[in-house]
Write a structure and sequence with these properties.
Order of helices and strands: EEEEEEEEEHHHHHHHHHHH
Shape: elongated
Structural class: alpha+beta
Number of domains: 2
Strand content: 15-25%
Strand order of the largest sheet: 1-2-9-4-7
Number of helices: 11
Length: about 300
C-alpha cells in the first residue's frame, strides 16, 4: 500500500491483521497535518473487497470507475473486482483517514456459497459479482450495524496466530457476509412492501370475477388481512370490497347492454353466486334493475 509523498503525518498506524491464501485483512489509520491525505490500495484480480469506513468524509475513486464516491463514517461497501484494480482514498480538512479492508478471493466465496447447490445461492453470488451490495437505497451506501462493529473490533483485537486465527477470521467474515445479505434482503422486503397496494390492485383486477373472500386474498398474496385492508384504502381511498364491486358492476353493465348473455350468466361471470345478490347490488349502483336497463 503506497502513500502519496506530498502529505505529512503526525501519526501513522496501519497493519496487516491477517493474510492467508484466500483472505487479507488490513487496518489503515492515518492523520495528516496538511490539507488532505491520500492513500492507494489495490484490489486483487477476481476478488471481493469489503471496505468499512471508520472516519468521516472519505472519498474514493477506483481506476475502473470515473466517478468519485464519498462515504460517511460507519458506512461500508462490498465490491467485486474482476481484474487487478487500483483505488485511491482521500480525506480533506485534516481529517483522519481510517478504514478496514477485507479482501477475499473469488474462488473462496464461490466454494463457500456453492451457487450450483440452489437458486438462492446462485442469485447471491450473481448479485455480488454485479456489485449490487454497494448501495442500499438509490445512491446511499449501507450503514454498519452494531453487530458489524463488534465483529470488526473482535478481528482487530484477536491475538492468536496460526490455524486458530485462520478459523476465527473466516468465521467472522462469514458472519459479516450473512449480516450484509440480511440487511439487503430487508431492504428488498421494504421495497416490496411499499408496492403492496399496487400488488393488491393488480390481483383484484385479474380476479374480481371470482368469489374470493378477504381471508383468501390475504393468504394468496401473503399479507396480513388488516394490513391488506389498511394499505389499500390509504392508497386508493376506497375499500377492497367497494373496489371489487365497482369492477363487477362496470363489467355487468357492458354485458347487459350487449344483450348477448342471460342475467344469470352475467351474475356468475361477475362473481355472484346468487342472481338475487347480483340484482340487489346492480340496482344499488345504477338505480335500476338489470332487466330494466336491458329493456331500455
Amino acid at each position: 500500500m503506497e502513500l502519496k509523498t506530498r502529505r505529512t503525518m503526525k501519526q501513522a498506524k496501519r497493519g496487516l491483521l491477517f493474510q492467508s491464501e484466500d483472505i487479507k485483512v488490513v487496518f489503515h489509520e492515518d492523520a495528516a497535518t496538511e490539507k488532505y491525505l491520500k492513500s492507494n490500495f489495490i484490489e486483487g484480480q477476481s476478488s471481493f473487497n469489503l471496505l468499512f469506513f471508520l472516519s468521516p468524509n472519505i472519498n474514493l475513486q477506483a481506476s475502473d470507475c470515473g466517478t468519485n464516491f464519498q462515504f460517511k463514517k460507519n458506512q461500508y461497501i462490498l465490491h467485486y473486482s474482476s481484474a487487478e484494480n487500483h483505488a485511491e482514498l482521500w480525506t480533506e480538512n485534516q481529517e483522519v483517514l481510517k478504514y478496514l479492508q477485507i479482501k477475499v478471493n473469488y474462488q473462496y466465496v464461490f466454494n463457500l456459497i456453492d451457487p450450483k447447490s440452489n437458486l438462492e445461492s446462485a442469485e447471491i453470488l450473481e448479485n455480488m459479482k454485479n456489485n449490487n451490495f454497494i448501495f442500499l437505497h438509490k445512491q446511499t451506501p449501507p450503514n454498519m450495524t452494531v453487530e458489524m462493529h463488534m465483529i470488526l473490533k473482535e478481528i482487530s483485537g484477536y491475538s492468536k496466530k496460526g490455524v486458530i486465527q485462520k478459523l476465527f477470521i473466516e468465521a467472522k467474515i462469514i458472519k459479516l457476509l450473512i449480516l450484509i445479505f440480511e440487511q439487503f434482503n430487508e431492504k428488498d422486503t421494504v421495497e416490496d412492501l411499499s408496492k403492496t397496494p399496487e400488488t393488491i390492485k393488480k390481483f383484484l383486477d385479474e380476479n374480481y370475477h371470482k368469489n374470493l373472500k378477504i381471508e383468501e386474498i390475504s393468504r394468496i398474496i401473503g399479507i396480513n388481512q388488516n394490513k391488506l385492508r389498511k394499505e389499500f384504502k390509504e392508497y386508493y381511498q376506497t375499500t377492497i370490497v367497494d373496489y371489487v364491486s365497482e369492477l363487477r358492476m362496470l363489467k355487468a353493465k357492458k354485458m347487459i347492454i350487449n344483450k348477448q348473455f342471460m342475467i344469470k350468466e352475467i351474475a356468475i361471470e361477475c362473481g355472484y353466486e346468487y342472481v338475487q345478490n347480483f340484482t340487489r347490488a346492480f340496482k344499488k349502483k345504477f338505480g335500476v334493475s338489470p332487466e330494466k336497463l336491458r329493456l331500455g
